[in-house]
């Protein structure tokens, strides 16, 4: 179990959270500006809806809380994700997020870790987003054999 250490030390079965927070209008607006999402439903003043990809910030929130030593000796690279949206996330809403490492494996000289994250509405525990994130923890350097 690597919770409390580095992100690169996370192992199968490690759990982080649940963490509670309120989705702020500011975060939604700034994220949408950065990603050139200018639609009224994400930029509206009266309760904008967070875009589904904003769940990436929840992964970072979990890492910061569960792995206070940082990324570790190996840089991590966001590799792929799969998000299933079950409900809208509205700015101003109280949420909880939790993650569990479900896989850690090596492939072609690279080390991968898979974390499953669930974002829920705090008031009724309704699942809003289920997110599976695969991250490369170690990678082959240029010139190294596979």
Q: Could you walk me through the main structural features you see in this protein, from its secondary elements to its overall organization?
A:
- This protein is of the alpha+beta class and 146 residues long.
- It has a single domain (7-138), classed as Thiol Ester Dehydrase, Chain A (Roll), CATH 3.10.129.
- Helices cover 18% and strands 38% of the residues.
- The protein is built from 3 helices and 5 strands.
- A 5-stranded antiparallel beta sheet has the order 1-3-4-5-2.
- The chain is globular and about 45 Å long.
- It starts with 14 loop residues before the first strand and ends in an 8-residue tail after the last strand.
Short description:
The chain is an alpha+beta fold.
The backbone outline, from C-alpha atoms, is globular
Average pLDDT score:
82
Structural class: alpha+beta
CATH architecture: Roll
Span between termini: 28 Å
Q: Count of DSSP helices?
A: 3
For CATH, the homologous superfamily is named as Hotdog Thioesterase
The portion of residues forming beta strands comes to 35-45%
Across the major sheet, the strand order is 1-3-4-5-2
Topology, element by element:
Layout (H helix, E strand, L loop, with lengths): L14 E8 L2 H10 L5 H4 L11 H12 L10 E9 L8 E14 L2 E12 L5 E12 L8
Antiparallel strand pairs: 1-3, 2-5, 3-4, 4-5
């Amino acid at each position: 179990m690597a919770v409390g250490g580095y992100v690169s030390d996370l192992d199968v079965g490690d759990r982080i959270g649940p963490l509670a927070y309120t989705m702020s209008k500011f975060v939604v607006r700034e994220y949408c500006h950065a990603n050139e999402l200018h639609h009224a439903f994400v930029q509206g003043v009266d309760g904008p809806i967070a875009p589904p990809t904003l769940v990436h910030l929840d992964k970072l929130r979990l890492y910061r809380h569960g792995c206070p030593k940082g990324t570790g000796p190996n840089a991590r690279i966001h590799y792929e994700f799969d998000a299933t949206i079950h409900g809208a996330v509205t700015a101003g809403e109280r949420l909880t997020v939790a993650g569990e490492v479900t896989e850690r494996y090596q492939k072609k000289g690279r080390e991968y870790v898979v974390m499953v994250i669930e974002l829920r509405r705090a008031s009724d525990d309704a699942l809003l987003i289920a997110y599976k994130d695969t991250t490369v923890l170690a990678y082959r350097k240029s010139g190294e054999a596979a």
